[in-house]
Amino acid sequence: METEIQSLGLETGGEASLHEGFLEGDLGPRSKTSLRMHYEAQVSVIQKQIGNLEEIRGVLGLSQRKMAQLLLVDPSSWTRWTKQGDEAPPHIWRALQWYMALREKIPGLTPQYFIGSNPQVLHQKALQELDSERQQRKEDMEGLARQLEDLYCERKSLTEEMNQLKKDLNFHKKMSIVILLISISWAAVFLFWKGL
Question: Considering only CA atoms, which of 126, 74, 68, 71 is closest in space to residue 96?
Answer without folding.
Answer: 71
